[in-house]
Here is the input.
Amino acid sequence: MNWVPALARWLHILAGIMWLGLLFYFNFVQVPALRAAQADGTAAGIAKHVAPRALWWFRWAAVVTWLAGAALLGKDFASAFALEKSHLAIGVGAWLGTIMLANVWLVIWPAQQKALGLVAASDAAREAARRRAFLVSRVNLALAFPMLFFMAAGAHTAVYFGR
Ligand code: HEM
Here is the structure.
């Protein structure tokens, strides 16, 4: 067995499931649940006990997914990110995943810290942060679909492109 790509692929898929599973959880479960819970005054428990834990696993799974993906690319890293024809599909997938990672760490997490009251913010700033986190999380949800398509196409070019 070729240990580095074998373990990196396993870890990449494992962490990718954790990351996207939580992304789907936020978009399909937590956002509507919090909306309903705010209406009947039961949101505090979700905001205090569930969301911070989910966000911890979410943002670190994103990092592990990226690092294991980079390890999988190995010597093809530059070709993929330069979108060379030989690595176009995996390159597009890797770029989409990288944009998603940047969104997690540079926008969603800082905004969620304000929205959940983990860092101090005025009511207006908290509301703006909540909206920003929501919209960028929706962007990542939309990017996840083409990203997974290109990720699978990059790993199985014969199935997708017949070569
Ligand atoms: C956004 C999160 C990501 C998820 C959920 C994800 C998921 C996947 C999946 C399901 C595969 C298919 C594995 C297979 O069938 O063998 C794959 C392959 C791969 N991914 Fe990702 N990926 C993500 C981001 C990235 C990023 C950012 C990079 C690069 C930095 C990357 C690099 C790769 C490579 C090199 C392969 C193997 C391609 C091959 O075997 O030819 N992935 N990924």
Q: What stands out?
A: The mean pLDDT is 96. Residues 3-161 form one domain. DSSP finds six helices and no strands in the chain. The pocket of protoporphyrin IX containing FE is lined by residues 9, 12-13, 16, 19-20, 65-66, 69-70, 72-73, 90, 93-94, 97-98, 100, 147, 151-152, 154-155 (CB under 6 Å).
